[in-house]
Amino acid sequence: MRELALNILDIAENSLRAGATLVEIDLAADFSQDAFSISVRDNGKGMSKEMLASVCDPFTTTRTTRKVGMGLPLFKYSAESAGGTFHITSEEGKGTAVTAAYRISHVDRMPLGDFGGVALQLVTMNPGVDFCFTAKAGDRQGELDTREVRAILGEEIPLGAPEVRAFLKDYIKENLTDIFGGRL
Ligand SMILES: Nc1ncnc2c1ncn2[C@@H]1O[C@H](COP(=O)(O)OP(=O)(O)OP(=O)(O)O)[C@@H](O)[C@H]1O
Ligand SMILES: [Mg+2]
User: Fold this and answer.
1) Tens of pLDDT along 145-168?
2) Are 111 and 156 in contact (CB under 8 A)?
3) What phi-psi label fits residue 91: left (phi over 0), alpha (psi between -120 and 50 degrees) or beta?
4) Distance 70 CA to ligand 1 centre (A)
5) What backbone phi and psi angles, to 5 degrees, belong to 127?
6) For atom 28 of ligand 1, which residue has the closest CA?
7) CB of 56 within 8 A of CB of 76?
């Protein structure tokens, strides 16, 4: 995997599989501290303590089609191999939160990649799920909360409708460019 955005997609897919109705994804950069963090929180079914303890071991999976789950181990590796840290918390019946932190300048830090594309895909492909994305760097910040967008559009117009999709695509792209300026 060469892009953090694809790691994020993987982690968000775990949330969707856990039945989440809300997935919150936060990106925060502090260029003066050479620090970048990604956090994904969901209100899905969560994990037992035993599951949580072994979940970063690539042989842990509840998938039945194959024996190895790689999403969490790869995300953990992306952070720890780039001078960063990784944390996961989860509570059964409540949800799960995953945070990965990076040294921005570390030679092994993967580029963020097309996070805008991933966000757009998540929003338009999952009509029954709400997403809240935030991006922050210094005093620049932006947010996209599908609950707010839905409130404005009303129930008739889906987020995947061509005009809405085009608007969201530009909105996300402009925000990411303005906030991170291609530095991630
Ligand atoms: N957000 C979550 N909520 C509840 N359970 C989760 C969550 N994320 C991961 N899990 C549990 O941890 C297991 C391991 O997750 P991981 O992403 O590493 O592998 P996977 O999803 O099983 O396979 P892959 O990501 O390679 O498709 C999952 O099978 C699931 O049981
Ligand atoms: Mg997974």
Assistant:
1) 999 999 999 989 999 999 999 999
2) no
3) beta
4) 8
5) -60, -25
6) 61
7) yes
Average pLDDT over residues 102-128: 97
Question: What residue numbers bound the domain in which 109 lies?
Answer: 4-180
Pocket of ligand 1, beta carbon within 6 A:
10, 14-15, 18, 42, 44-47, 55, 60-63, 69-73, 96
Q: What count of other Cβ atoms lies within 10 Å of the Cβ of residue 177?
A: 11
pTM of the model: 0.95
Closest atom of ligand 1 to 56 CA is: 18
Q: Closest residue (by CA) to atom 13 of ligand 1?
A: 61
Alpha carbons within 13 angstroms on the beta-carbon side of residue 18 total 26
Find the CATH number of the domain harbouring 64: 3.30.565.10
- Tally of domains within the chain: 1
- 151: tokens are 């409130």
Cβ-Cβ contacts under 8 Å for 116 (sequence gap 6 or more):
169, 172, 173, 176
Ligand 2 centroid–CA 62 distance in Å is 10
In whole angstroms, what is the distance from residue 162 CA to residue 158 CA? 9
Instruction: Give the environment of ion ligand 2: residues with CB less than 5 A.
Output: 14, 71
